[in-house]
Amino acid sequence: MADRQREPPVIEVREEVTVPSAPDAVWLVLSDPYQAVSCIPGASLTGRDEDGAYEGRIDVRFGPTSIAFKAKGTFETDDAECRGTVRSRARDGKGGTKVQADGSFQVVPAATGSSIVVVANVDVTGPLASLVESGTAIVVRKMVSDFTTRLAEKLAPGERVATEPPAKRAWWQRLLALLGLARKPLVRR
To answer: Can you list the domains of the chain with their CATH numbers?
Structure first.
């Protein structure tokens, strides 16, 4: 009789938040991986690998327990639709817990600024899987709340977003593409 391994549950994340800024301003931040990640508490990008994937870290708190993950992922955007996808893999440094997340986000106009719609599927395996699974809803709500607060602060009047305007960005994107360093555009199927 063959051993059966437990299939990891897929955790579905569906969130929509509103920030009091115009969609173009919100998109300038969210379409830049470094700017977007700076809005996530405990997260940072540390560079890119030879294939262009982003490398980073994220420290996640589950009550009194903090888990540090090393992560790698891809980030693709569709500027015309203000939509993007993120695919990431992470592993904690101590216990071997692995997380795989695939998600999308889109910025849309709202009555009071912009709404950001996020949809993701997260698979968790390893020793801390049950802890992560049981606390995910609470942790996601807290992280989304903190992200929204930081994004709104970054976009507040008087704050300068360190991103070029769209015309200038297009020129830089072409240059980065020639050098093989550009983000991959979102592929429609």
So the answer is: 10-175 (3.30.530.20)
